[in-house]
Amino acid sequence: MSNRSPIRIGAVAMTLVLGIAGALLFELIRIPIPWMLGPMFAMLVVNNLVPNRMAWPQPLRNTALIIVGYTIGLSLTAAALKQIALQLPVMLLMAVLLLAYCGGIAYIVSKFSGMGFKTALMGSIPGGLSQVIILAEETEGINITAVTFTQVTRLMMIVICVPLLVFSPILGQTKDAAASAAAAASAAVASWGSLFPNLIFFAIVSVACAFLGNRVKLPTAYMLGPVIGTAALQLAGVHGPALPGTVTGIAQLMIGIYVGLMLRPAQLPNKVRNLTLALGSSVLLIVGALGMALLLAAIQPVSDATGLLSLAPGGMDQMGIIAHEIHADLSIVAGYQLFRMLFIYFIVPPVIRMLFRIQPRGEKRRGAA
């Protein structure tokens, strides 16, 4: 994948064709969320069999994030925001528990792998990939390759395993009754004819907020900007139309291709050891998120599936897509994911830098190994 090199039209076209083929294959064999997981799997296989032949420009991924951000923003009504505000203490508790759990996983990985605790911790933080990589680059004694691979493996495992868990008997009922009724009502009007003229106004606002958010360095600006802009319009009494399934499917396709191209196991040194550790830590993280989701469902009026999607450290865009597909409570999922994302972006980096400053010097040399 090359986001900074000149766009190769033929490579982009081939990437699109293979992504659609993967989606159709996954749809045929009834894999959950086929238009995201299918392209992801196709890119993972093809890009590693024939390196540097696929291409997917960053603007296509950003367009998909704007669409997802708009969909999430539609769910943030005044009633939903009030419900989210009431859950802020629980959000803080869950964010702290998840980060503490990730710290424990990092400690175990560092002992078994021989890599430094710094590198293991950076690979375990359930934050945005780009933010963690930037933080790792700014911290002395970090193995950037190991951090990148661990983070991308975690993301892939979360995005692949969470839908399977959501649709499995483990979580039982996967749809909230109220959310399902609301989704059914919105689906009835989510036709092409009902999009205009309101969608034009919302599209302009969403794109403007995306670029403005990127300008002021908002976390995941191309998604969070439209979320904020759409939610603000909704609170002002201007209601946007629901998007047809075709549009959300295209967004899933574009994100699935992008994520699939990120994983390049061939470039990783000590492949067997690092892959085993990355997969093992990812499984532990998923199990921990599932346990906390069941705890959340026990203390809050949400379904198990909504709880898992709220706490799964896979990114608000992917979890939002899954929540939309299964008619989970999208506003709650977005609220928890957004809170944890902002907590990790603004609170965790200074705390980690402070902790790393008091690390022994020997750890610095071992972390870079």
From TrEMBL:
Taxonomic lineage: Bacteria, Bacillati, Bacillota, Bacilli, Bacillales
Keyword Transmembrane helix: yes
Protein name stated in the entry: AbrB family transcriptional regulator
Entry-linked InterPro entries: AbrB_dup (IPR017516), AbrB_fam (IPR007820)
Transmembrane segments: 7-26, 32-50, 62-81, 87-109, 155-172, 192-213, 220-237, 243-263, 275-299, 338-356
Alphabetically ordered keywords of this record: Membrane, Transmembrane, Transmembrane helix
Source organism: Paenibacillus glycinis
